[in-house]
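Data card: per-record layout.
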Amino acid sequence: MSKMLLYGATKVDEGNSAYSAIASLEQFQWRNRVLVVFPDKGNARGARQENQLLANRDALQDRDMVILKIAGGSVRVLFGAGKNLDAAAIAGELGDPPTGEFAAFLVGKDGTVKLKVSEPISSGELFAIIDSMPVRAAEIASDKQQTSEESEKRD
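The structure for this 155-residue chain is written out next.
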């Protein structure tokens, strides 16, 4: 199983079939990328992560992001929309971090975990990782082609 250290985080090998879709997040599959945040005791790192990401709402929207915070046995949607989410099921499938420890998991549109971090990640680093993913690259190419076609129609 190959893993790569990137920005102080573990990037999960997307080609490894041992990683399967997170069933408890199935409502987002092929629609959204999901960042699940487990705040630390005292919420210092959790709050820092929230603030960094929510300061870039347009970029989150462009990348079809949903941000979830799991704390105290409940799920709070920080960005995007989600319903009937089960905190225990999500935590169990992601490998619930030890109580009081910060962790964040990025789940790709295919429903598999792409990244796990134990420290807050900057929005720039997160967006760079997302933008390097094949599905996101295809979205960017499609957007460019659509913009080009619209421009040609106006001319």
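Known properties of this structure: The CA atoms of residues 5 and 87 lie 28 Å apart. The longest strand covers residues 65-71.

See the next section for split statistics.
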